[in-house]
Amino acid sequence: MKSAGIFLLVGLLTLWMVLPSWSGTILPVQQIPRVTVKPGTCPLIASTCRMLNPPDKCKEDLDCVGPMKCCMSVCGKECLQPNQVTAKPGTCPLIASTCRMINPPDKCKEDNDCAGPMKCCMSFCGKECLQPNQGKSGTCPVVPFRCKMRNPPNRCESDSQCAGAKKCCDTGCGLGCILTQKEKPGTCPVVTIRCLMINPPNRCDYDHQCPGPKKCCETSCGRDCVLLQRGTGLSVTGSPLS
């Protein structure tokens, strides 16, 4: 009996010594992190109240019901309807220079902060709502000459700066607003005879400069407005252009 009691005591002591090592191997249950930021961006606040350290009505997005976010309002934080980030069509105009202010204040954060078709673009001094560039239809003509001026000034930077149907195109001496060439139906005839004048003057350059169905074609002595017969390379007189 005495030996059995000794074995029992040794067994209990051994179990007591092993238990701490077992408990040390048990891994704690990891908690799944909460998603604290809801989609969307807070609306832009143009002004703030004069109260120092105004009380907040929320601390994080999860304090707000539904899709609302905890945003800075006029006077402290509160639950507001967020802006859904959607980019408006068009591209921001090119900015040639910037102000010297370090970190200038932005008047907008995204396109949704701007009225109508205007976009939130980088301006001369920080972001602000600007009219985007919208490319107009038509193709700029090929310029056959260049002026002698180095780095000629541009009179436009995008189509949106040109009135009506004009496009901002290369003029041979910087960019300028011009009417693009829109060809009228028909094919100009092949000219087989040339006048003796060197570099004869042109009476037109593009079809849109000709009235009605006439086209601006190469004639025997410079370009001129010509009325063609449909499907032929002849003038309305029935004879080849000369």
UniProtKB/TrEMBL annotation:
PROSITE patterns according to UniProt: WAP
Name any one Pfam family assigned in the record.
Answer: WAP
Q: Which SMART domains has this protein been placed in? A: WAP
Annotated signal sequence is 1-23
Which cellular components does GO assign to this protein? extracellular space
Q: Cite the entry's keywords alphabetically.
A: Disulfide bond, Signal, Transferase
**Keyword hit for Isomerase:** no
Which GO terms of the molecular function aspect are on file? serine-type endopeptidase inhibitor activity; transferase activity
The record's annotation in InterPro entries points to: Elafin-like_sf, WAP_dom, WAP_four-disulfide_core
Domain WAP residues, every copy: 35-83, 85-133, 136-180, 181-229
Q: Which GO terms describe its biological process?
A: antibacterial humoral response; innate immune response
Q: What is this protein called?
A: Putative Dol-P-Glc:Glc(2)Man(9)GlcNAc(2)-PP-Dol alpha-1,2-glucosyltransferase
Upper classification of the source organism reads: Eukaryota, Metazoa, Chordata, Craniata, Vertebrata
